[in-house]
Fold this sequence. Notes:
By secondary structure, the chain is an alpha+beta fold. The protein has a domain at 5-76 and 101-171: Pnp Oxidase, Chain A. Helices cover 32% and strands 33% of the residues.
Amino acid sequence: MYVPEHFATDDADALIGRLTRRWAGVLVTVDSDAGPVATHLPILWDAESGIAMGHIARANPQWKRGPGKGLIVLGGVEAYVTPSWYPSKAENGKTVPTWNYEAVHITGQVEWFEDAARIERVVAKLSQLHESGRAEPWAIGDAPRAYIDALLRGIVGVALKAERVEAKRKLSQNKSAADFAGVEQGLAGSPEPMAQEVAALMRATRAVADDPDGN
C-alpha cells in the first residue's frame, strides 16, 4: 500500500485494534495457477507477537492451497471529499475530488491449522472481543458442548505472522488549514453517518497535531 509520510501513523497497533473491533478483514492469498483468492473474516491481532488470527469454513477451498504469503486488508470509515469544500477552489480552481479513509495492510506468512483446541481458543477470544461491553455477553460455554464440537470440525484456523505492516490514515492532513477545515465542516454536515465519523476523526487528528503533548 502506498503510504505518503503525511498519511502515516506512528501507532499502527492502536489503529489495527480499533479497526478489528468493528470491521471484518479480508485475507488474500495467491495461487500461481488460479490467481488471488480472498475471504472476509473477523481478525484477532496480537501486537506483541505480530500475529493476526482467524478462521474460515472448512468448505472454503482457500485453505487447501497450503501455506504461503498472504495479505490481510483492514478498512474503516471512509468518505468522498468534494472539491467544493475547499476555499482554495474559489481562489485558483486547482482542486479535484478525493477520498478520506483509514486502512491497514498486514503482509506475512500464512499458516492454516486444524487443531480443535487451538481453533476453539481463537473462537473464544473473538467472542470475548466482540461481546465485551454487552449487558449479557455470549461466551462459548453458553452453547452445548456437542454443538460446539461439531461446529469446530467445520472450520479451519489461520494465522498470519506479520512481516510488514502498512497503516494509513488519509484525513486531509496534506491540505492547508483552511481547506482542512472546509472538508471537516462539509463532512460533519453530511447526512451520511460514516462521513460524520470521518469528520470526527479529522477533528481528533488535528487536535493531536496542534497539541502533541496533550497539554
